[in-house]
Structure formats: C-alpha cells, structure tokens
Amino acid sequence: ITQPDLSVFETLESEVRSYCRGWPTVFDRARGSLMYDEDGHRYLDFFAGAGSLNYGHNNPVLKRALIDYLMRDGVTHGLDMSTTAKRTFLQTFQDLVLRPRDLPYKVMFPGPTGTNAVESALKLARKVKGREAIVSFTNAFHGMSLGSLAVTGNAFKRAGAGIPLVHGTPMPFDHYLDGRVPDFLWFERLLGDQGSGLNQPAAVIVETVQGEGGINVARPEWLRGLAELCARRDMLLIVDDVQMGCGRTGAFFSFEEAGIVPDIVTVSKSISGYGLPMSLCLFKPELDIWEPGEHNGTFRGNNPAFVTATAALETYWADGSVMEKQTRARGERIERELIAVAEENPAEVKEYRGRGLVWGLEFHDKGRAERVARRAFELGLLIETSGPESEVVKLLPALTVTPDELDEGLSILARAVRETV
Ligand code: PMP
C-alpha cells in the first residue's frame, strides 16, 4: 500500500475538520455505495455524505438529468428568479410529496445548507409569535450558525462560538426519559416556572431521530404528545428533518409514522439527491408573513440542484412505495446483524437502535466506537461515529444500497468489532 499524499491537508487545511477525519486517504471516484481512493482502493460507503446521498453517489438517473440540463445551457445560478427548473421542481414536489400526504405547506428556499433552513425556521417562528424563546432538546443538533447553534444541545460545539450550555434543567429527549418520567410533566413544569425563562416560547424544535446526538429515536406517541402540547400552549412545532427526511427512516418525512403535521419543517441534505447544496423550509400558509426581502440570500436558486431534486423525487416514487418498503426491510436486516453483534459481545455492547436505514451501535467503553470505525476503514468500510462523546457507531447507507453490499458492510462491521478492544 502506497502512502497517500496528505501533506497539503496537513499543512494548509485547518484542523477544524471533524467529519471524515479518521479516513487517512484521498478519495477520487464514487458510484452508488462505493468510493475509491486515488490508488484504486475500494470502500463501501455507509456514511453517505452524512445523509446527503440517499440515492448513492452519481446516481445514473440523476446524473443523466444533470448532464442534459447543463448541455442545453440551463440556468445554473438564478437567485430568486422564476426558472423552468425551479417551476418543475415545485410542481413535482407538490404532486409527489405534498398533495398525496395532504400536507398544506408553502415552500421557501432559505439557502444552500441545513443550517440555513433551521435558521430561517427559527427566525420565522419568532416573528410569527412575536416571542424570543425556542425550546430544544438535550443532545439535539441543528447547525453551526449562531441561531441554530443556540438550539444545539452540545456543550462542546456551542463553546466554539462562546455560547455556554446554560439550561439549568436539561430538556430530555424521549430517548433519555427511559419511560421513567410521565410524559411532558417536566415540560409543563418548566413552562410554568417563572425562573426557567421559558414562560411562553415561540416554538419547539425537534429531530424525530437525533442523528448527530447518537441515533436517539423518539417514539411516535411521544411526538404526538409533543405536537399536542405545542398546540395547547400556543407554540409552533418545528421538525428538523434535515438528516432524517427524504426517505431515511422508511417514509419520505420522518414524522409521517407519528401522524403529526408540524407547523414548520426543515429539509436539506438528500433533497437534491446528488450532494448538491439545497434546502427547504416548509411552513403552514398562515405563517407566510415575511415581507419580500425580510429573509434573502444569494445562493437560493441552485438550479442544477432543482434538476437533480426533481429526478430524485421521480426516482423515489418510480415504483410506488417500493423504495419505502425496501428501506424498512433493509433496516430490519441491519437490526438482525446488530442483534447478533450484541449477542456475540454481551459485555461490551450497550445498545443498538434505529429506524429505516439509520442505525446506531453504542458501546459501554466510550472510545470503542472510534476504534471500530478506524478498523472498519482498514477493512474497506466507511462509517462515522455520533453521540456527545462519539460513543455510537453510526450506520447510514444509501437507500439504494444492494443486499450484497449491505451484507458485506455488516460483516465488515462485525469483524471490526471482533478485532478491536
Ligand atoms: N439539522 C440536522 C438535524 C442535521 O443533522 C444537520 C447536519 N448534520 C443540520 C441541521 C445542519 O445542516 P448543514 O450541515 O447542511 O448546515
């Protein structure tokens, strides 16, 4: 094995990189669930651009749509202009996503990233309600800008901007309640506590599965209780579907299973389907109160992304709900393997959990997940870690992963667990 030339990354690129740091090679090509480095080594990608590549790398249908669009000199940068690519996307989104689910949303393009979508959701909720506070949960992740970071429940990441984690009382996400605390009593108490500063928040922001927080899964009944509480206490419910949306959990929106209709939904990552930057903020029509220009930005009209996003939606529903059923079935295959790994290592595995094609494997020894991910890389599998102390191995294959690729990746994972201590 030749040593990769990493010198320019080591000397010129800032150390701040966190994703993908443990992969000491230089990647060059990628297709479907496979990536290749410059020396031709093959890696199975169960990271999928942190959830941005649900359709795999260079999906041939999306690539064809993109190439055709570029070859005919389609508009690439359109700010807020009405373009044919944007119109086709909006029409397709309405026909394939909103109307069949009876979702009443208006669509805003808040910028290229998930952070932009969250930032717009927080701003809109504050403006609509005329109040400041937003409630978010322990170990939530919503982005890196000041507003989205302020609702991110991670002391380390907040310290990067000098925002201390000041919650006197943690806001426990469903997963941390362990069934011990009666649902929402703690929340009701906080809302009534003059000292908590939460007397009348504008909104609550929640992930249905905390992706960066360690694959913490909310029960549908907890989400329904949260929606009911928000309605009763006049708070808007924002579901941040940046990572869990676009089919990741086995339904297009991750909140569908719970049967709730959030007031605001943020979408990004896999919406373009091709890894091109794009985000959406969806909100109920009565919240559409911003004056023109109150929230704008240059990179809101990524027309090539509209083109691949349209092809992605068509691909998703090309065979009815087959993609959703397949996602759930492949998730069950992952669960079976994680059960086997847990049974093989009963003293070491703390928990496995997930939904659809997002799964986490947590160890008692908090450093173990990083060691497993490193060994998996040596064996040809790209997996990340998540959780406040990177203590959870995170499995996030593309929704288009083949059964053989899934089996190969899972057997590498089992071997990596076996070969680390
Ligand atoms: N919200 C959630 C739930 C996320 O997982 C992420 C990214 N990991 C973001 C927001 C921020 O998205 P971006 O990195 O595109 O700004």
From TrEMBL:
NCBIfam families: dat, ectoine_ectB, PRK09264.1
Keywords of the record: Aminotransferase, Pyridoxal phosphate, Transferase
GO BP terms in the entry: ectoine biosynthetic process
Catalytic EC class: transferase
Lineage start: Bacteria, Bacillati, Actinomycetota, Actinomycetes, Kitasatosporales
Signal peptide per UniProt: none
Keyword Transferase in annotation: yes
Name the record gives this protein: Diaminobutyrate--2-oxoglutarate transaminase
EC number of the protein: 2.6.1.76
The family this protein is said to belong to: Belongs to the class-III pyridoxal-phosphate-dependent aminotransferase family.
Domain of life: Bacteria
Stored PANTHER family: DIAMINOBUTYRATE--2-OXOGLUTARATE AMINOTRANSFERASE, DIAMINOBUTYRATE--2-OXOGLUTARATE TRANSAMINASE
InterPro entries to which the protein is assigned, alphabetical: Aminotrans_3, Aminotrans_3_PPA_site, Dat, Ectoine_EctB, PyrdxlP-dep_Trfase, PyrdxlP-dep_Trfase_major, PyrdxlP-dep_Trfase_small
Pathway listed: Amine and polyamine biosynthesis; ectoine biosynthesis; L-ectoine from L-aspartate 4-semialdehyde: step 1/3
Pfam families per UniProt: Aminotran_3
This protein's record includes keyword Transferase: yes
Cofactor(s), by name: pyridoxal 5'-phosphate
Gene Ontology molecular-function annotations: diaminobutyrate-2-oxoglutarate transaminase activity; diaminobutyrate-pyruvate transaminase activity; pyridoxal phosphate binding
